[in-house]
Amino acid sequence: MNDEIIKKEDLLKVIKDGPAFINEKIKEELEKIIAKTPYSISGKHDMRWDSDDKYHYIYDNECYLFIIDGKIELRCDRENVFSSYKNYEIPIKTYSDVESAYESFKSMTMEDEEE
């Protein structure tokens, strides 16, 4: 969909569902970024979503990237790494914010364990 031309149905969806439209655009941008990232760098990130399609997430190496309410939340459940048990919220205003958040997620998944 062209950002300059919004269909009447899409506008009604935004009014009715709120940030779900924004979340879908974030998901689409992430899928484009992952598709053009070499597999050796991106690893095996799979996009998933809950049964109500309220949030999307990627899981890799005990790290999560959630798309919720127009922002990306990163969470690391790994032990003995710099990001252990940390949560980050990144508001998404532009497509470059999506790319930056994904880069942070990749970095989080590749951290070496501290001794």
Written overview of the protein:
It is a single chain. The chain has one domain (about 10-110). It has about 120 residues and is α+β, with helices and mostly antiparallel strands. Helix 2 (about 20-35) packs across helix 4 (about 95-110). The protein is about 40% helix and about 25% strand. It contains four helices and five strands. A hairpin with a 2-residue loop joins strand 3 (about 65-70) and strand 4 (about 70-75).
CA-CA gap between termini? 49 Å
Helix content: 40-55%
Largest sheet: 5 strands, antiparallel
- Strand portion: 15-25%
Count of discrete domains? 1
Kindly state the mean pLDDT as a whole number?
A: 78
Give the helix/strand class.
alpha+beta
Strand order of the largest sheet: 1-2-3-4-5
